[in-house]
Amino acid sequence: MSSVSGGGLMLGFLLPGANSLASTPDCEFFQPNAFLRLDKKGNIIIYVARQEMGQGVNTSLPMIVADEMDADWKKVKTEIAPYGSLPAGAHDTGGSQSVLIDYNELRKAGAIAKTMLIAAAARQWNISADKCAADNGVVVNTVNMLRITYEELVCEAATQPIPKEVILKNPKDFKLIGKEQKKSNLKDIITGKAKYGIDLKVPGMVYASIERCPVLGGSLISVDDEAAKRIPGFIKTVSYKGTGKPMHVRPGVAVLATSTWAAMQARKLLKIKWDEGTKNKENSVALFTKMAIQSKKKPALEKYNKGDITKLKLSPSNSFTAEYAQPFLAHATMEPINFIASVTGDQCELWGGLQLPDWTVNQLVADCGFKKENIKVNLALIGGGFGRRLHFEFAIEAVKIAQQINKPVKVIWDRTEDIRFEGYRPANYHRMQASWDTKGNLQSWYHHLVCTSIGVMIDPDTKDASENLGGATNDFYYEVPNVQTGFTNVDFNINRGWLRSVEICMNCFPIESFVDEVARKLKKDPLAFRLALLDGRPMFTTGDGPGAMKQYPQRIADVLKLAAEKIGYTQPRKKNHFIGVATHSFIFAKSYAAHAIEIEVLAPKKFRIVRVVAAIDCGIVINPDGLRNQMEGGLAFALQQTLKGEITIENSRVVQDGFRTYELLRYNEMPPVEIYTIKNDEEPGGVGEVGLPTVAPALCNALAAAGYRIRKLPLKNEGFEWV
Amino acid sequence: MASFQLLVNNKSYTVEAEPDMPLLWVLRDLLDLTGTKFGCGVNTCGACTVLVNNRSVRSCQITVKSCVGQPITTIEGLSEDGSHPIQKAWEQVAVPQCGYCQSGQMMTLAGLLNQIKKPSEDQIKAVMSQTLCRCGTYHRIKQAINLAIEEVNK
Predict the structure, then answer these.
(1) Can you tell me whether residue A248 is helix, strand or coil?
(2) What is the mean pLDDT of residues B39-45?
C-alpha cells in the first residue's frame, strides 16, 4: 500500500487539456487528463500517444500511468491516443525517446487521477485526504480500514478540482514499474485480431498500386495504360509529380482498382516512359572508392578536438591507421509500406502508421496545399518501424492520388518497392588512426567519418551535414589525451533515412573494432585495455545547455565488465573457441550496453556463434520483459547487418528487390542469447536501439581473436560462412 | 469474375473473384480476414501462411479456384479465443514484438505439427527458417515451439 502522503517528489504543473475533460454531466466516466479514463465498471483506458511498432510502448507507457494511479493492471486497456488530443510532439516516436521523455509526465497523469480519487473518497468519508491511501484500484480509509473501489468514486472524483501539484511515488514504492508485464495487445496479435495500418478499411475505399520513377529526381514523360484497362476491377490511372526535400517523393503513376490484386496486376501492364534526369549513372562501388579517397583528406567539418593531434610525431612504429566501411541498409519492415488517404474538397483524412505525424501534417500543408486544421489523422498500429515511418513520403503519395479521385484510397507497396524506394541507412566509411607513447599508452585518436548524409537530403542547405545525435564525437568515450574527429558528406543520388541506431551503429563498429585492433597490436588484452581507458575518466557532456547529453564512463565500463564476467572471459576456452567484446554509451537514449560473443571456428572462414551475452544499464527499467525483447530483437537486427545486410546501387537504382536478395536473419541463425541488467535508480533510458551497436564489433572482435580482422561489413562479402 | 464457394474456418463463404486471385487477397480484401498478412507476395517470407487441408500453405501462392472444396484454416480459426496450444505457448512466452509475422509463424508451426507431432530440431529448423521475423523474436519462438510440442504430445 502506498500513500499520497508518503515520501516522494513535489512537482508543480498543469497537464494540457485537463480542465475540459474532468467532469461529465452524465457522470459515466472520470477523465482527468488526455492520458486516462476510468468508467463506472472500473475499466481504465490508458491512451498511448507514442506509436507502437513492436518496441513495447503500448505496455511500458501505460505501466507508468497505472503505477502512479495505483490502478489494478488487470482492468487497464490501452488505446492509441487520438491525434490532436495532445500538444504537438506528443505522438512523435523515434530515437528511443518515448519512455525517457514521457516518464515524469505520465507519472503525473496517473498521480493526478489518484489524488482526485482519494479526494473524492475523503469527501465521502468526511475525513482529510491524508487519512486515505490508494491500493490497486481501491481507496482505503486508514483510520477504520474501510475500502471503496475506484469505480464507485467516478462521479465524485470528476467533481474534484484538478490538483496543480501532486506527490510522485518514491521509486521503491513502485508496484508495476520494474515487474514483467506482457504486451498489452498480445492476445489480439496471437488471435489475428490486431489491426495494423494495412488491415484498415474505410467505406468506399479503392486500392492503388504505384509505378515510380526508377531514379530520384526524374520525371514522367508518358504513360500508356491501354493494356492495364483490361484487368477486371481496373478503375483509372492517375499520375502525380514528385517532390524535393525533405521527403523526395518520386513521381508516380498509380493504378486504382477494386482490390489490391487487381491494382497490382494492372500496374504491371503500364507502359511508361521516364526522363531519368542527369544523375542516373551512380553506383555504390564507385561511391566507396570515392569515400576512401575522401577519407584521407581533411574532414569538411571538424566535430571534436581535444589536445593537439597535429603536434604529435607519428611514425609506423608509434601509430596505426585502418579504414572501415559499411553499406547502405534497408528497413525491410515485415508490414510493407501502406497508407490510406481521403480527400473531399479541402478536407483531407489519413489512416496509417506515422512515427512523426506532426511533420507529416505540416509537409502536407506545404506540398498539397491543405489547411492544417483540415487534415485529420487516424494513427494505426505499425508492423515494424525501425525508423522507416519517420519518413512519410508514402503519405504524401497517397494524398496526391486521393486528390484525383473522390474516394478514399489505400496504397499498398509490394515488397520490391518496399526494398527499392526508401530512405536507406547511409553508406559510411571511416578512417581511424591511433598513436601511442613508448610505454604503449594511447596518445591520440583520430576518426574521420565519410558518409552519405541524411541531413543534406532533409535540407540541402544545412550547415551541419553530420549526424548530430551520436556522431563520431558523442560516441567516442575513451580517455585519450589528443582526440580529433571529423565528418565529410559525399553526395549520392539515393535517399537516406534513419534506421534503428543509425549513427551509433555506424560509429560503434569502427570505434570498438579499432580499439580492439590497437590493443592487440600493443599486445594488450582488449578487455583490460578498454577498462584502463575508461578508468578515472570524468563524466563527458556535449555542452552546457539544457539539451546537453551526458555520458558516464563508469557505466560504460560496468556493462562491459558484466558481459565479460557472464561469458567467462577469464575462464579457459575450448579449442577453436574465441571471445570478442564491445561496449558503448547510447548517449541520447541515456543507456549503456555491451556484448560479449563466443564463436567456434569450424574451418577456415567458417564459424558458429556459440553464445551471445548482452549487458545493459538503462537506469530504472519499466518493463523487464520489454527490455529483454528489445535486446533479443536488437541482437537479431544487428546480426543481420553484420552477416548479410547490404543495399547496393547500380545506375542510381537499388539492385536488391526483395527478401531473396536483401536477406533477413532467419530462425536457424539466431544464436543463444542471455541478457543481464545492471540495477540502479538512474532515470529511465531508452532501450529500443541500445542493443544493436556492439553486436557487429563484438562478433568481429571474436573473429579477430581467431585471426580474421574484419573492416568491412557485411561478412558474406568477405568470404565467411556461418552455421 | 466468377463465383467460388470456400470453406474457411468451418464457415462457408461465396466470393466473387478472378479465378487466379491468390487466396491471400481473397482472405484479406474480400473476406476481411486480415489476420493473414501480406509480406512479400512471392513465397519468400511466410507471413501469409494458412492451412489448406491441415497443411501449411503460402496463401500468396495459391489461387482461389484451387481452394474450392478444401478446408482452409487461418489464424482466426486456429482458435478464436487463443486456446490452441500454439497460441497458448505464444502467449505464455510473450513472443511477439510488432506481431505482424506471428500469425504466419504460428500457422507454419501448426502445419508442421499436423504432419509430425514430435518434429526433430532439424525438422523444426528446416520449416521455421522459411518464415521471417524482422523484430527478431526467434529466441522466443524457439521457446514457444518447445512448449507447444510438449502440450500437443500430452
Answers:
(1) coil
(2) 98
Closest CA to A321 of A448, A149, A179, A163: A448
Q: Helix/strand/coil (H, E, C) string of A188-225?
A: HHHCCCCCEHHHCCCCCCEEEEEEECCCCCCEEEEEEC
Please, what is the end-to-end C-alpha distance for chain B in angstroms? Answer: 47
Three-state secondary structure call for residue A35: coil
Distance from C-alpha of A711 to C-alpha of A719, rounded to nearest angstrom: 13
β-strand A409-412 against A319-326: which pairing, if any?
A: unpaired
Name which of B40, B75, B139 is nearest A673 (Cβ-Cβ): B139
Q: Which residues of A touch B96 (CB under 8 A)?
A: 54, 183, 186, 189-190
Looking at residue A265, its amino acid is Q
DSSP A163: P
The whole-angstrom separation of Cα A709 and Cα A623 is 38
User: How far are the Cα atoms of A374, A512, A578, B90 from residue A708, in angstroms, in the given order?
Assistant: 59, 15, 11, 39
Residues of chain A found within 8 Å of residue B37, distances taken between Cβ atoms: 196, 198, 334-335, 383
> Grid coordinates standing for B66?
484451387
Residues of A in contact with B44 (CB under 8 A): 415, 658-660
Tens of pLDDT, residues A14-58:
344 444 444 556 678 999 999 999 999 999 999 999 999 999 999
**pLDDT of A612 above 60:** yes
Residue A548 has pLDDT above 80, yes or no: yes
Residue A27: predicted pLDDT: 79
pLDDT (tens digit, 9 = 90+) per residue, A398-445?
Answer: 999 999 999 999 999 999 999 999 999 999 999 999 999 999 999 999
Mean pLDDT, chain A, rounded, equals: 94
- Residue A470 has a pLDDT of 65
Nearest-CA neighbor of A254 among A402, A368, A369?
Answer: A402
- Residue B44 and residue A335: Cβ atoms within 8 Å? no
| Distance to chain A for B73, nearest Cα, Å | 12
Contact indicator for A609, A580 with CB cutoff of 8 Å: no
ipTM higher than threshold 0.90: yes
| Calculated CA dihedral for residues A624, A627, A631, A634, nearest 10 degrees | 160
* Average predicted confidence (pLDDT) for chain B: 97
Q: Which three cell numbers stand for residue B24?
A: 491471400
Cell, residue A480: 585519450
Q: Which of residues 260-299 of A touch B (CB under 8 A)?
A: 260-262, 264
pLDDT over threshold 50, residue A685: yes
Rounded Cα distance between B117 and B152, Å, is 7
**Which one of B45, B98, B131 would you mutate to disrupt binding with A, by most A Cβ within 10 Å of its Cβ?**
B98
Cis peptide bond upstream of A246, omega within 30: yes
